[in-house]
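Trying the structure run again after the queue cleared.
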Amino acid sequence: MIQSAHNPAQTEAEASASPSASLPSVSVEEALDRLARLAVGLSGADIERLVREARGRTRRQQRPLVYADLETALLRARPQRSPELRYRIAVHEAGHALLRHVLEIGVVLALSVMDADGGSTTTEEPPAVQTETWLTKRLAVCLGGRAAEAAVFDAVTGASGGPAYSDLAQATRIALSMETSLGLGADHPLVHRDVDLAGHLLLRDRDLLDRVDARLQAAMEMAQHIVEAHRNRLLRLAAALAKAGTLDAGEIAAILDTRDSARPSIPEPSG
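Done. Tokens:
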């Protein structure tokens, strides 16, 4: 996950959308797909509220509700971000998707750079045999966004950390579980220690801290190796995601299933 601050600047897409605009010259399915993409990350209550507000505006204007009213309402509800920030979010989420694809850890159903809190990766992860090897791969997936940022921008942000559901928090919890509660640790592997309580040990037990960090470092090296080996696919996916805002499972697979070829250019920062 990557977070961003709200920017009140209006995007070109929002500026061009107006309630008087007519339905695009596309099929009903394509129009609904457009609206569905704009609604990614919004709750049912959010969408209900936006539709209700749009209907109220059209009643006051004494005209029926049309497609453009819904599109405009959804566009206005999306957070506004600079192209540079949007692309960085796309690179981060593309990193997670690439690691899942290469390591065959679940299936990526959707990617978005339009969530209120930043980007998101929606996945389906069937039950798996949780060997030490599989868990290390799972750690690498958690660190895939950070590895992608480091490879593309030569620097990382604090986007991988922060709240308890962040990438680093999830990865640390998995690595700590391997050492304390899953029977895979180097120290007393048969002794089960509650992971919620064991988390406090990281502040006091230097040996445990070193073992957890070693697992995270190994997973990070795996993620970095995969990102570099498949850099072109990462950049293609990030560019497509930054442009579209959201990608579905078919669009993601179409990019990740192709062979690496010419590397797409990275957008230059404005100003």
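The first strand starts at residue 107 and ends at 115. Worth checking whether this holds up in the mutant runs.
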